[in-house]
Specification:
The protein is an alpha+beta fold. It is built from 17 helices and 35 strands. It has 3 domains: 301 residues, Jelly Rolls (Sandwich), CATH 2.60.120.200; 105 residues, Phosphorylase Kinase, domain 1; 270 residues, Transferase(Phosphotransferase) domain 1 (Transferase(Phosphotransferase), domain 1). 25% of the residues lie in helices and 24% in strands. The longest helix is centred in the middle third of the chain and has 31 residues. It starts with 19 loop residues before the first helix and ends in a 17-residue tail after the last helix. Bound molecules: 2-acetamido-2-deoxy-beta-D-glucopyranose (8 copies). One 2-acetamido-2-deoxy-beta-D-glucopyranose binds next to loops. The site of one 2-acetamido-2-deoxy-beta-D-glucopyranose (NAG) has 7 residues, from loops.
Length: 742
Amino acid sequence: MAVHFLVLPLCFLFLGTGTPASSASTTSLTTNTTADGSPARQAAGSGGNVTTFSFTTFHGDLRGVNMTVVGDAAINGGALQITPDSLNDAADFLTNKSGRVLYSAPFRLWRDDKTSGNANKKVASFSAVFTVNVFRAPGTEPAEGFAFLIAPSADKPPPGSYGGFLGLTNASTDGNASNRIVAVELDTEKQPYDPDDNHIGLNVNSVVSVANVSLRPLGIEICPVKTAKYNVWIDYDGAARRIAVYMADVAESKPASPVLASKLDLGATVAESSYFGFSASTGRKYQLNCVLAWNMTVERIPWDVDEPSKTSKGLTLGLVAVGVSVAVLVAAALGCYYLCVVRRRKAKSEEEGSAITGTMIRSLAGGPREFDYRELRKATNNFDERMKLGQGGYGVVYRGVVVDDHNNPSTAGTTVEVAVKKFSRASSQGENDFLSELSIINRLRHKHLVRLVGWSHDNGELLLVYEYMPNGSLDQHLFISAPTAGSRPRQPLGWELRYGIVQGVASALHYLHDQYDQRVVHRDLKASNIMLDANFTARLGDFGLARAIETDKTSYMEEVAGGVHGTVGYIAPECFHTEKATRESDVYAFGAVILETVCGRRPRCDIEGFHFLVDWVWRLHRDGRALEAVDPNLDGAFDEDDAERLLMLGLACSHPTPAERPKAQAISQILMRSMPVPAVPPFKPSFVWPAIDGGFDTMSTAAGTGTMSSLVTSSSTWSGNFARGSQSHAPAPEQDTSGSLV
Ligand SMILES: *[C@@H]1O[C@H](CO)[C@@H](O)[C@H](O)[C@H]1NC(C)=O
Ligand SMILES: *[C@@H]1O[C@H](CO)[C@@H](O)[C@H](O)[C@H]1NC(C)=O
Ligand SMILES: *[C@@H]1O[C@H](CO)[C@@H](O)[C@H](O)[C@H]1NC(C)=O
Ligand SMILES: *[C@@H]1O[C@H](CO)[C@@H](O)[C@H](O)[C@H]1NC(C)=O
Ligand SMILES: *[C@@H]1O[C@H](CO)[C@@H](O)[C@H](O)[C@H]1NC(C)=O
Ligand SMILES: *[C@@H]1O[C@H](CO)[C@@H](O)[C@H](O)[C@H]1NC(C)=O
Ligand SMILES: *[C@@H]1O[C@H](CO)[C@@H](O)[C@H](O)[C@H]1NC(C)=O
Ligand SMILES: *[C@@H]1O[C@H](CO)[C@@H](O)[C@H](O)[C@H]1NC(C)=O
């Protein structure tokens, strides 16, 4: 269901992106280690056999088969949740937890050479890479920490191992050599023995690290307010008895030098037969500890034939054993694939994104008209302040008058009013905004989309020319008390107009999402981007954030980690995790638009103790009083059935689980009254991330129990947290003056 959210852009384990360090790591089972801990390459083939496994995502079927999930851990929505991710009442569900997830088969990590003592013990090398996402609710502080673990058993974490014990030890066992554990911790809570609350540490039998390094100087924050996914590489050289840990943003390749490098003799610490996995804990404060992918290669030390096989189970568990030379071949193949396919694809998209020049735009068939910069300057009275219609994140919009297209004889010579959008950022960023907007909107044709009339791209100045919308944007009519630019007193929008506007936007959304040859997500749907023409027909505008997504993909991943785009109250909760705009997140924003159109209130508003309009409406719905939410300015002049329909549709679109939101096509049919509104549960379901498969079932069974009132409280608290934490992501609606494209 919602698992596609976790399709991850990981680098290939075996893929040297050209740097010796990363290619060496792939065959590091037989590598030597230099003094600084970075492995150096050695001739392949000298080392013998390895066991590898690779999980690019996790699903529930792995539980008990490939993964042992113990303590408070779970597998949910594509990820290992080492501690719970449920957003039910934090005090009961998220604090003081500890969990572990271990690969279900143990590995033999050393062999005692009985004739010559410990120094000649054969110790297995391994290399691991995993993608970790440690998430905190905005406005909260993270704690306690997460660790990669080597343990003697797949048992659950010891009792009392929550809080600072990271699921590794507890107050009575910490430091005891009989624990036989080694861990690499990513610690987000400073204990008296820690350097800070953002460090990596090497733990041997104790949460007091034998080596620790703050990540701050490297610019890595384990658990920032925004979503962060990191790759962590752990290379262990059994011959040299050295461990090296590397860490980088998931989009980056393996760094040349390790964050932490240390001597470590696994032969003297861990059990001969040990398990690999993850451990994490929360304390009074909490974070969500997720592993999104995990690859591992372990040098194989076979149990001798005469020895009782302690681990034969592990070796028959469907593991692929490949010699190092095979690994090299695989590396070569994958590298070739990358070079030949991925790079080309990337190059292609970069080309599409930024290399479109004026010449190329000119060559677009049936493209919009190219204006001379001077003509537009004249049209807007030299970009006069008084001609300003609005301002958005991407530029200022001016009103202007131009002579109609001379290519069209029937209208030649007449003048038309236009809205001229002048991009503020002269940088290449501005150029990219311009080009993405132009290349998308140029090809879109729909009666509920604002039409692009023309463009200008003279000496670095970027301008787009749209039809002028005499009635401004929807928000200017809904929130009459709000001061608007050059405001004249306005009548509240009548009910029929409101219904028609919602219908118009829905039909534009259906076109963008399903009917256009390339799927387009708008990404910034909100009342100030819904323009009204002379007849108060809705025209969706501002495609500054719109992006086309390929039809065979379900979502578009931001290439630049720029945080969440959009405006508070319109942003779907999952976007704070995924930073991805999808059709589902467009539908979420549309739900907010419906509710504000019906209620005459902004999505983010404080009302009767709620911080968001949707929470308030949901409460009224539970109490069977939904119609009380309708805008009092309408003086009761509305159709009750239709109002109920819109309110329920607005709530359905606001479902916290993306997959449960209706699709644009269904929305259009519901608004045409040819399909019933989906049943809306009396309580707002809690937000769970990553979304649990079959979230709706979970929710409807829970709806019958008596614990639901706490869910309502916690979900509105949750939204509140998002609101507070979101200031850095997006402008608050109060500051949003983008009545652009008017
Ligand atoms: C893990 O291995 C898979 C192939 O088995 C590969 O696609 C993926 O990129 C690897 N992940 C990392 C982080 O190297
Ligand atoms: C590793 O390299 C060092 C010097 O670079 C050398 O002295 C040592 O013998 C090498 N060890 C192995 C196991 O090859
Ligand atoms: C790899 O393992 C197989 C069977 O376990 C064995 O026959 C072979 O000799 C091993 N190769 C090396 C290089 O150790
Ligand atoms: C998980 O275990 C099953 C059954 O042993 C095996 O077929 C499958 O390949 C394993 N998956 C991975 C990714 O190791
Ligand atoms: C969590 O543990 C701490 C210390 O052990 C305790 O003070 C606190 O009350 C616990 N919190 C919950 C919700 O159990
Ligand atoms: C620590 O864990 C051990 C079992 O591993 C248990 O016997 C002991 O009671 C625990 N101590 C505390 C303080 O919880
Ligand atoms: C370490 O643990 C073992 C086994 O649980 C126990 O017998 C021993 O007394 C412990 N040592 C210390 C110093 O606590
Ligand atoms: C941990 O970090 C602190 C502060 O940087 C340092 O003083 C301490 O020596 C470190 N501990 C270890 C074991 O490296």
